[in-house]
Amino acid sequence: MDETYYDEKFTNFKDFQNHYKDSWYYVHWTQIIKYLRGFNQPKILEIGCGTGQLAHYLNDEGYLNYSGFDFSSKAIEIAKERVDLNFFLGNALDEASFKVDYDLIICTEVLEHIENDIIVLQNIINGKDIIFSVPNFDEKSHVRWFTSERQIKKRYYKYIDIKDITRIGNIFIVLGIKSDFSPSFFQKIFATREKISLSSFSKRIKHRVKNFLKTKKL
Which of 22, 78, 112, 214 qualifies as a FRET site for 5, CA 20 to 30 Å off? Predict the structure, then answer.
């Protein structure tokens, strides 16, 4: 969807106007705060900051070194009224939007809306930490969604070294490091960064056969 769709959505949907504690996403954002506690006051860049609800939460938790962008001018307008942080108009597909000083990327409920989501990840500097979320349900503006952790790893393993995935309801929250990866032949087959040996190959085959037989019984 283009920016006019989101301008209208941010204007007319009450949930985007609410305090962050009253947002449907609040419980998911608490997991982001838990992940952030593993870092020492990182410089944060949020991709798709929306109306600044998460930014407001971060600010209240003491994460003041923050920048956030969105391609919806209405979202940026509301965000600037909500909390005094560095918000700017930008596009996740445009490398210029990432020309700020940051240690860590936050990208919640964005990648599933973008056909060329890999370009977004390629715009992130290698070695930077990333926290992102994706849904497991379809919606009008979604171009993809994920029903398992395995699907997430399969799509993004070449670009993100995934350290942890937490599922809360119908949202997956992922912690990782931006890191381009050139897989071997077998790593491509299994879509993984793990080293593939004969023993691990055998275990994977047995695991898949076991799951297949269990599914057939059901």
Answer: 22
Instruction: Report pTM.
Output: 0.89
Residues in the chain: 218
Which token pair is 56? 């407001």
Q: Contact 104/128 with Cβ under 8 angstroms? A: yes
Neighbours of 105 (CB within 10 A): 23
Tell me the two tokens of residue 195: 């080293």
**Exposure of 77 in the CB half-sphere (CA atoms within 13 A):** 8
Beta strands in the chain (DSSP E): 44-47, 66-70, 86-89, 104-108, 129-135, 160-168, 171-178
Q: Tell which residue, 44, 11, 54, has the closest CA to residue 171.
A: 54
3-state SS, one letter per residue, for 125-156: CCCCEEEEEEECCCCCCCCCCCCCHHHHHHHH
Q: Which amino acid appears at position 2 of this protein?
A: D
| DSSP at 43 | -
pLDDT in single tens digits along all 218 residues of the chain = 888 888 888 888 888 999 999 999 999 999 999 999 999 999 999 999 999 999 999 999 999 999 999 999 999 999 999 999 999 999 999 999 999 999 999 999 999 999 999 999 999 999 999 999 999 999 989 999 999 999 999 999 999 999 999 999 999 999 999 999 999 998 998 899 988 876 766 766 776 677 667 656 65
